[in-house]
Automatic annotation (TrEMBL):
Name the record gives this protein: S-protein homolog
Gene Ontology BP annotations: rejection of self pollen
Lineage, uppermost ranks: Eukaryota, Viridiplantae, Streptophyta, Embryophyta, Tracheophyta
UniProt keyword Secreted present: yes
Organism: Quercus rubra (Northern red oak)
Cell compartment(s), UniProt: Secreted
Length: 129
């Protein structure tokens, strides 16, 4: 391989790496998946919204999941999680905290757990209320 081709290949590889890194560091969510591992006694009722308004509520059976999409990933999203005798609130999307395209949340009795697809692992948080 000529020195010119070797340099071009290296530059293309570097450019690809920069583009991929920039995308992953600035990833904006457009899909959320809520997994119900909180309650076996009743479906988990989820109501979310942002400063533009509320999204349609949905129910998730125990061990099941429910995806939903949003149009504007620049706004933070708060959700209420309800099951038998329990109501909790949590901000499932904070554009300063979360870096994901598909944000997976495992809902457990102690609080929501974020499945970090970029860095790997799980980050659990306490309920806001």
């Amino acid at each position: 391989m000529s020195p010119f081709n070797k340099n071009v290949s290296t530059l293309l590889l570097l450019a690809f790496f920069i583009i991929v890194t920039n995308f992953s560091m600035n990833a904006k969510a457009d899909e959320f998946v809520v997994h119900n591992n909180a309650t076996r006694t009743s479906p988990l009722n989820v109501t979310c919204g942002n400063s533009d308004g509320d999204f349609p509520s949905f129910y998730v059976d125990y061990g099941d999941k429910h995806p939903f999409e949003i149009e504007d990933a620049s706004l933070n999203i708060n959700c209420f999680f309800r099951w038998t005798g329990v109501i909790h609130k949590f901000q499932i999307y904070d554009n300063g905290r979360d870096q994901c395209v598909t944000c997976n949340w495992n809902i457990i009795p102690d609080g929501p757990c974020f499945q970090d697809e970029l860095r790997g692992g799980e980050q659990c948080y306490p309920w806001y209320s």
